[in-house]
Amino acid sequence: MAKILVVADIKQGALKASTTELLSKAKAIGAQTAVVAIGHQITGLVPNLVNAGSDTQYIADDPGLELFGAGPWAACIVDAAKQAGATMIWFGFSESGKAAAPRVAARLNAACATDITDVVLEGDQIQIVRPAIANKVIQRVKVNTPQLVAVVRAAAFEAAPGISGTENVVRLAAPAPDLKAVVKQLVSDASGDIDLAEADIVISVGRGAKDQAGITLVKELADDLKAAFGSSRAMVDAGLMPHHKQVGQTGKIVAPTLYIAIGISGAIQHLAGMSGSKVILAVNKDPEAPIFNVADYGIVGDLFEVVPLLREQIKKVRG
Amino acid sequence: MKILTTVKKVVDVELNIHVKEGAIVEDGLQYVINAWDENAVEASVQLKEKHGAETTLVSIGGGDNAEIIRKCYAMGIDNGMHIEDPALAKADSAVFAKVLQKVFEKGGYDLVITGKQAQDTDSGQTGIILAEYLGLPCVSNVVAIEAVDEKRLKVSRLGDAGTEIVELALPAVVTVTDSINEPRLPGMRGLMMAKKKTIQSMDLAALGLSADDIKAVGPKSEVVAFMATKARKGGEKFEGDATQITAKVVQLLASEAKVL
Prior knowledge:
The structure holds two protein chains of two kinds. Chain A has two domains: 3-171, Rossmann fold; 201-318, TPP-binding domain (Rossmann fold).
């Protein structure tokens, strides 16, 4: 029987929806479920981990785990995987997951797959599905090892309504610190922002917004809609938007219900990062901009004119 | 400092890719240097210019890689190595990492810089697994590299909670994103000089690896079929009076798409 260990996605002390989504999928394919949670002062999350659908909770709670470090994280996950007898270890889509998964796989001598969108079990044989070549093709991949370590793409799996688990807490020993790669400082300008990976609506701003005034204009629309606020690479490179706001293959891959691209032409890496969105609206001056090839609705026009009108009209329909 | 950079030849992602009967249609494809590896090359050359270093690149597979390697020479890379072997036909990240491990051990490097992922697989694993095989520290998704002294680097990594500033003891592996730099365009003189330089071509035996050594590592996974991505089709594009078309689109978002 498949035994799946899900690595809990914890941000700013809260358990993210991806953990429930992954555990739901694990249960749907008939696997036993366990979760491993790593951090500092996270023991209070045990009820949340149970409610997310786990039947065993491995907890690594230590001051040395306050800041993410791929080495110590991998050590905790390998420890939990061995104790659980896990046949698969799943990470939610995150930079931490992408950094830790190959390490865990190397230590377990297991196959590793990133960006997966589906898992198919045929007896003991595991196959996965994932996009490749900037989302231009889908691969079906056969796993040759008994174990698989995988990073699941954002929004690939859905949370099952009414999912629950049982409490069975196992404490993990604190791992040795990584003295060769020491996180000296975390420069965070992300606190308080709506998470791009989880938002129902994402609004991204591109070069068309020109400067800070243009960004502020678009941000007001995002605020009206309680949307997460993202950016194209061009605005990040120009120093106008912070790195962590970048949507695309370098940056965040998003799949919201509604994605609004304002003043973004649609470079291939950007498209690969947002074309999984349910509905896309694009606003751009250039009718030939590639973004219109993926947008369900396109407005050809000057964003400085269109964005205030959008705010006004949206307020009207939302009442 | 001795820096090793990896460069992969990949399919040009800017062109259309067609799939037929579970395989990618080769006709019409073009191959280029992996864009993130180009950032790795630039990062190596910048470190060389600032602190002095011997820069070596290694490219595995891809057939005739001379053009790509010469471009990197023209950007400022000192030595180039191309490894090709039939046993690498189905190589996955673990196999690439095994080969790179051997290259590293033979050459005695202080730093490996790779792109954060290759554009053909988008896996993002090889550099990190290499570090595990070598027992070295590794920082991935790096946007800035600074040398602290002969033995240490300060690197900035984009993490989930913000930018992580990491002090890294050498030898180490770093994987970089495209935000780290803008790769230089090689000049005429550099390109001319690059033509005169040799490329060291090797098979696994020359490296001291057997086909069985490779089999012991992988491939741990292999692609059994390719499928076309369900292409998004552009929908309605509205042009004309901004007030009118905006009102129309908002109405459609609310009533037709039901997302407002």
